[in-house]
Design a protein that fits this description.
- By secondary structure, the chain is an all-alpha fold.
- The protein has nine helices and no strands.
- The chain has two domains: 87 residues, Saposin-like (NK-Lysin, Orthogonal Bundle), CATH 1.10.225; 40 residues, Transcription Termination Factor Rho, Rna-binding Domain, Chain A, Domain 1 (Orthogonal Bundle).
- α4 packs across α6, α6 runs antiparallel to α7 and α8 packs parallel to α9.
- The longest helix is centred in the first third of the chain and has 22 residues.
- InterPro entries: ARMET-like, ARMET_C, ARMET_N, SAP_dom_sf.
- One of its GO terms (biological process) is dopaminergic neuron differentiation.
- It comes from Thrips palmi.
- Pfam families: ARMET_C (PF10208), ARMET_N (PF20145).
Length: 175
């Protein structure tokens, strides 16, 4: 009878561990959050890391130089002056306890689900990509990344022609 109870307890513990690993946040589920929290955490001194208020102040400084998706992440947390709301305490307290970035992001996701909806833009390899297969939105993004415009472009072929004209200037082939 006792061995049966022990195996039942072992089975229950195994099930709990399995559920814990399934529900754990993976880096691709919340890539911007995990990368930013990790990068920010690494930048903190040992003294700052122990005080949640100092962590919040440092995060606001950190956010001033952020761009694109990382800036949007800062906005969601309240790290920017123009942020509508703020949940910096949900970041600073766990970091002061030395919680890993994945767990911090898991807590943040519970407070604001859109935090984990942020994704980095995929880079397009212009040496190998077939421009005809890209969407106009992607073609516009390529030009925008180059700080170029396409005046008078109405058709997809116009954008492709403009990118082909500018390609030698921005895409360097290795010898």
């Amino acid at each position: 009878m006792i061995p049966l109870r022990i195996s039942f307890v072992q089975l229950c513990l195994g099930f709990i561990l399995l559920i814990g690993t399934i529900s754990a946040l993976r880096s691709e589920d919340c890539e911007v959050c995990i990368k930013v929290v990790h990068k920010f955490s690494e930048s903190l001194s040992d003294e700052t890391r122990k005080d949640p208020k100092k962590i919040e102040d440092e995060f606001k400084k950190f956010c001033k130089s952020s761009k694109s998706k990382e800036n949007r992440f800062c906005y969601y947390l309240g790290g920017l002056d123009e942020s509508a709301t703020g949940i910096l305490g949900e970041l600073s307290k766990p970091l002061s306890w030395s919680m890993p970035a994945e767990k911090v992001c898991e807590k943040l996701k519970k407070k604001d689900n859109q935090i984990c909806d942020l994704r980095y833009d995929k880079t397009i390899d212009l040496k190998t990509v077939d421009l005809k297969k890209l969407k106009v939105r992607d073609l516009k993004k390529i030009l925008n990344d180059w700080d170029e415009t396409c005046d008078g472009c109405l058709e997809k072929s116009d954008f492709i022609k403009r990118i082909e004209e500018l390609k030698p200037q921005y895409v360097h082939s290795e010898l």
